[in-house]
């Protein structure tokens, strides 16, 4: 069957519209002369049905006639077919409601996408809504199935992206990509927020990423040039600040990107913490029942600092630091320095 050129285009573009499939349903209603066009969608594993309508009419009744019965795929249904499958009491009530809305004809079709998404497409109107409308819906069924499959995949990726993004946000991790000139190609929303935390990193002229430290700026520029020249380089880890903690990992970008007009050369993961060392020590006191002196040592040890370096930073003897560390290990359940780092850095502190 041949379709109006704009109808299939509207169907496949409908998943990006707000409301969903609005243009498609209005075009379908116009083509068939229907009083109302409706697309009902039931996501996989759910009982609720989303109802998308163009025009006026008792959409709830039409939806119930379709969804409430075992409509088979590949078959067109008329109003009498749907009413025949309905309980006599409900049938009379449905017919009365439809007649009150001057709807005497319904054409409907059902499709089921492979992942389990169900869709029902219907037109409802007067007697002029004939078999041609039913044939049109049957011809649209395979295309609707493809559209629903794409919609299901898009929604799945949106959900995964939202969950991943929330996890990155809670862990205070952001990312951005740079081209060969050190210009930002794309970045996560929380990266833009980190730019406003302070002056350690900023978006400069022409979207260039600018570290506050000239030495780090030169190091980053040289690294990007090496990657752009095709040299094999290892990821580069850079600490930007220790209090509050702020660091980044720069690595060659694996694979191609089509999201920007400039090709990205490297990806940078940024881990930032707006909380000061004092804030984190207070959290360690609450979380593990440490004394303030123990919490200060525990936080330094969690940065993979040696016990002698930590003792010097705190102005205590190494022997005192060792005594503190024994109490820290007992209270946190860690069995050594490496495990203490893991326990603290993967605790709820990372989510706060």
Automatic annotation (TrEMBL):
Residues 287-344 form the HTH luxR-type domain. InterPro entries: Sig_transdc_resp-reg_C-effctor, Tscrpt_reg_LuxR_C, WH-like_DNA-bd_sf. This is HTH luxR-type domain-containing protein. Gene3D superfamilies: Winged helix-like DNA-binding domain superfamily/Winged helix DNA-binding domain (1.10.10.10).
């Amino acid at each position: 069957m041949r379709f109006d050129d704009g109808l299939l285009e509207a169907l496949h573009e409908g998943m990006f519209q707000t409301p969903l499939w609005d243009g498609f349903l209005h075009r379908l209603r116009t083509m068939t002369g229907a009083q109302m066009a409706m697309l009902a969608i039931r996501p996989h594993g759910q009982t609720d049905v989303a109802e998308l309508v163009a025009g006026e009419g008792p959409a709830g009744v039409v939806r119930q006639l379709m969804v409430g019965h075992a409509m088979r795929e590949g078959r067109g249904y008329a109003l009498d077919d749907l009413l025949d499958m309905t309980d006599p009491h409900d049938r009379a009530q449905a017919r009365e409601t439809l007649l009150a809305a001057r709807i005497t004809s319904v054409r409907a079709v059902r499709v089921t996408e492979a992942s389990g998404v169900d869709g029902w497409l219907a037109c409802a109107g007067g007697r002029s809504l004939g078999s041609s409308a039913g044939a049109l819906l049957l011809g649209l069924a395979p295309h609707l199935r493809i559209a629903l499959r794409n919609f299901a995949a898009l929604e799945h990726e949106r959900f995964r992206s939202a969950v991943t993004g929330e996890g990155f946000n809670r862990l205070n991790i952001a990312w951005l990509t740079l081209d060969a000139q050190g210009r930002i190609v794309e970045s996560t929303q929380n990266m833009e927020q980190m730019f406003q935390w302070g002056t350690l990193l900023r978006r400069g002229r022409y979207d260039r990423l600018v570290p506050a430290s000239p030495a780090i700026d030169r190091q980053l520029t040289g690294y990007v040039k090496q990657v752009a020249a095709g040299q094999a380089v290892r990821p580069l880890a850079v600490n930007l600040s220790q209090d509050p903690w702020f660091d980044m990992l720069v690595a060659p970008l694996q694979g191609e990107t089509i999201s920007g007009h400039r090709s990205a050369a490297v990806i940078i993961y940024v881990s930032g913490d707006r909380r000061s060392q004092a804030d984190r020590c207070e959290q360690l006191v609450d979380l593990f029942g440490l004394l303030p002196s123990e919490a200060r040592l525990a936080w330094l040890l969690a940065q993979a600092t040696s016990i002698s370096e930590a003792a010097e930073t705190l102005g205590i003897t190494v022997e005192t630091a060792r005594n503190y560390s024994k109490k820290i290990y007992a209270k946190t359940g860690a069995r050594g320095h490496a495990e203490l780092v893991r326990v603290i850095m993967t605790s709820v502190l990372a989510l706060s």
